[in-house]
Specification:
The protein is α/β, with parallel strands linked by helices. The protein has a four-stranded mixed sheet with strand order 1-4-3-2, with helices on one face. The two termini are about 35 Å apart.
Amino acid sequence: MRYQGTLIAVSDMAKAKHFYETVMEQKVLMDLGVHVSFAGGLSLQSNYAELVGAILPARDRPNNFQLYFEVEDLDTWQDRIKNTEGIEFIHEAKEYPWGQRVMRFYDYDKYIVEVAESMESVAKGYLAQGLSVEETARRTMFPVEFVKSLL
């Protein structure tokens, strides 16, 4: 068995496709109108209830899962998302104890989207500041071997 990706039910395919393709820069692999698949494993489905053959109750905010994206420049992406009409932030960029900065917001269908700095860029940043491999490993909570692989 092989995991193939995540499918989310959307209320407006044109709006959702535009957001993920244009704003979030996801490459469309297949567009069947009611179903759009992107490179990386994300898929959108506009007729989900019909597809599964069941009446599905609408959920305002299914706050029990999130879509996760990584970027190298979080500040640029935060500005980009802030300038996208209809997007509601849960929180703007904040730093976690391991040094990674993250922002979260709701997409148009109220799914949580997390955009975070890649841990590779976080670790490389610490190394560039002069921290040793061991100090960087402690700070990021990643194995020394991972940090060494970035050199």
